[in-house]
Amino acid sequence: EILTSERFNAIFGFARDVPRDLFVKALHPDDFELRNNAHKTALTSGKLFYEARIIWPDGTLRWIRAQGKVYYGSINKPLRILGTLLDITEFKHLQQQKDDFISVASHELKTPMTSIKASMQLLDRLIKVDPSSDKIPQFINRGNSSLNKMQQLVDSLLNVSKITAGQLTLYKTRFLAAQMINECCDHVRLTGTHELELTGDTELELYADRQRIDQVVVNFVNNAVKYAPDSNRIVINISKQGDMAQVSVQDFGKGIPAENIPHLFERYYRVDTSGIQYSGLGLGLYISSEIIERHGGEMGVESEIGKGSTFWFTIPLN
Ligand code: ADP
After folding, report:
1. Any idea what the Cα angle at residue 315 is, between residues 311 and 318, rounded to 5°?
2. Residue 285 gets which letter from DSSP?
3. Ligand 1 mean position to 6 CA, how many Å?
4. To bridge 235 with a disulfide, which of 39, 182, 200, 250 should be the other Cys (CB 3.0-4.6 Å)?
5. pLDDT tens digit string along 284-309?
6. Residue 125, Cα to own-chain centre: how many angstroms?
7. Ligand 1 neighbourhood includes 284 CB (under 6 angstroms)
8. For atom 27 of ligand 1, which residue has the closest CA?
9. Domains in the chain, please, with CATH?
C-alpha cells in the first residue's frame, strides 16, 4: 500500500491518488530492475535511494529521485518506508548538456592540438635533414595559428568561469567606437574573404571596457564570417539612439530560423548541434550578452532566412 501527497502524484503526472501498481507501471521499462534492486538493498541497509525515468500518462519522459528510510517493527521486520520524491528532470537535462559540452570542448581543443603536433613533427624532421629549408617558417606559422585558436578556446572557457563566479570586472575608459572597430577587425581584412563596411556615426565616443566591447564586436564579426561563408559583405554600423550607443553587425548569410532565435544567447547553445558543418563552443554569444548586460545595455538580433542576420548591442553613452 502506498500513501502519497498531492505533489507526489503530480510528479508522476496524476491529478489524484492512484493505486500503487500505477506508480510502479509508470517506471521506464529499462529502469524497473534498478528500482527493484534499490528496494531490495533498502531492506538490509535501511536506506532507499534511486534515480529513474518515468513515463507520464501523456507519454512525456521525466526523471525522479526517490529517497527513503526503512522503519522496522519490534522483531526487526521492515514495516514501512518513509520517504520523499523529487522531480529531477531539469537537473538531468543540465547534466546531459554539460556532458555534451565537455565532449564538444574536447573535440574543439583536439583539432588545433593535432595540427600543432603535426607541425612539430614535420619541423623536427626538416631540421635534421634540411635545416635551411624555406618550409620551416611555414610550419612555424601554421603551429602558431593553431596555438592562437587554442588560446581563444581556453579564454572562452575561463570567461565563462569568471561570469558564473560573478567576477567579470569592467575597466571603463573613453574611446572612439570607429577606431576600436577598425583595429579589432584587421584579422578579417587580412584573410580577404569578406569586405567590411563601417557606416554611421564614426565620431561617436563610448565609455566602456574597451577590451570587452572589442571581444563582443569580434565575436559578431567572426560569426558573420563563419555563418555567411558565401556572401562577402559585412556591414558594421555605429549610431546614437537617445542616450545609448548602438553597434550592429549585419551579414548576408543564411539567417537563423525564428524558433532558434530566443535561445541564441544561452550558454552552450548552437543551432546546428551536430557540429559537423561549423566548429564552435556555443559560448561566444552567451559571453557577449553577459558583457553587454554588465554595461547596462541590451543585445539582440534580427534575422531572415536566406537574407542574413543583424546582431546589435546598445550601451549607455555615459
Ligand atoms: P558558436 O559560434 O561557437 O557556436 P555562438 O554563441 O557565437 O557560438 O553562436 C551560437 C549559435 O548562433 C551558433 O552556433 C550559430 O548557430 C548561431 N549564429 C551566431 N551568429 C550567427 C550568424 N551571423 N548567422 C547565422 N547563425 C549564427
Report:
1. 160
2. H
3. 43
4. 250
5. 999 999 999 999 999 999 999 999 99
6. 40
7. yes
8. 227
9. 6-87 (3.30.450.20), 94-164 (1.10.287.130), 173-316 (3.30.565.10)
